[in-house]
Design goal:
- This protein is α/β, with parallel strands linked by helices and about 350 residues long.
- It is about 45% helix and about 15% strand.
- It has one domain: TIM Barrel (Alpha-Beta Barrel).
Length: about 350
């Protein structure tokens, strides 16, 4: 018998607040299970203000920052913000913690190290549980901690980060690709980390973050995907997982037009400019990367891909529309009207 697939949607807080909150209301009405609010201080409205507003305007959605980090807010400030949102949305709040990609790059610093991730997640759990944490010799407690658990997930892409998430977090958000071979390889690392703390994969919440673009034709969906899959599959760490797909992607020299896009290729403000900048990669390579790393295609194709991936153990998706500076209104409509009905017919909703 088919098991339901949980689907949450990424909400970049780049729109004005009234528009942003209406969008989150639409996410709930469309049937999504959760909404993750991007946390990047120079690109987005404040994540926790947005979460607080969303908590008062929704009744069912799981709400979480996706992804927050250990340095743009001190862990004590982070704990207070999370506890506040949890009071507004009891039982619907969780946290996804990462190394802070654009949060770091836009202010000229490096992302957090795995050691900093370990320290922050450990301290955050203690503070939310009402326990004292040593702050350079000063013990500090969160005075209004409820003591009720808030799930702490770690975003991870590389093998060491995935193993750390399995060891210390309540779950993991994996941005590694969307292919059966990748899933099997990644779960091996996650299980290795879980064993370090005496746990099993079944003890963890496992969310698969997948970059998503749905269009009327496969060609248009793949064209829209160009900046994302070039960034992930050719320029960044995610390409390490492609060996598990059977693909052999040739080496490309990255032109200056790509490197000069602000804040980076996959978060470009001018998406058509970013698409044009990736013309150095042939269409056939883009198509292979789309199938390995993303959920890209027509509504029928994407629904079928989700169903196929459940056979690999995928039970929870975090859908990330390509653009950061354009809200996911199209994705909301497409999932509501076309993808979710197909999943329901197949018994997965």
């Amino acid at each position: 018998m088919a098991r339901p697939v949980q689907v949450s949607l990424r909400i970049p807080g780049t729109s004005p607040m009234p528009e942003l909150i209406r969008l989150i209301e639409d996410v709930e009405a469309a049937g999504f299970d959760g909404a993750g609010i991007l946390d990047s201080q120079l690109l987005c409205r404040d994540t926790f203000v947005t979460l607080g507003q969303a908590a008062t305007r929704t009744s069912r959605l799981a709400l979480f920052p996706a992804v927050t980090n250990p340095f743009s807010r001190h862990v004590s400030v982070l704990a207070g913000a999370i506890q506040t949102v949890a009071e507004l949305a009891p039982g619907r709040t969780k946290v996804v913690m990462g190394t802070g990609y654009t949060s770091a790059s836009t202010i000229g610093r490096k992302p957090a190290t795995l050691a900093e991730m370990r320290t922050c997640i450990t301290a955050l759990r203690k503070l939310l549980a009402g326990e004292a944490v040593d702050f350079q010799g000063t013990p500090g407690r969160l005075a209004y901690a409820a003591g009720r658990p808030v799930s702490l997930l770690m975003a991870a892409s590389g093998p060491k980060a995935i193993e750390l998430a399995g060891e210390i977090a309540d779950g993991v958000m994996l941005l590694v690709g969307f292919h059966r071979g990748i899933v099997d390889a990644v779960l091996t690392h996650l299980e290795r980390g879980a064993r370090r703390s005496g746990r099993r994969l079944e003890d963890l919440e496992i969310v698969w973050a997948v970059r998503t673009g749905i269009a009327a034709t496969m060609a248009e969906a793949r064209r829209q995907a160009r900046p994302t899959v070039v960034h992930q599959g050719i320029m960044r760490v995610h390409s390490r997982w492609l060996e598990h797909t059977g693909l052999s992607i040739p080496h490309f020299d990255i032109p200056a037009s790509v490197l000069n896009i602000y804040p980076d290729l996959s978060h470009a403000q001018d998406w058509e400019q970013a698409i044009a900048a990736t013309s150095f990669v042939p269409d056939e390579i883009i198509a292979e990367l789309c199938d390995a790393l993303g959920l890209v295609g027509t509504p029928e194709h994407c629904a079928r891909r989700i169903i196929e991936m459940t056979a690999a153990g995928v039970r929870s998706l975090y859908v990330m529309a390509f653009q950061t500076f354009v809200g996911p209104a199209q994705e909301i409509r497409t999932f509501r009207d076309e993808v979710f009905p197909r999943l329901k017919t197949a018994g997965y909703r």
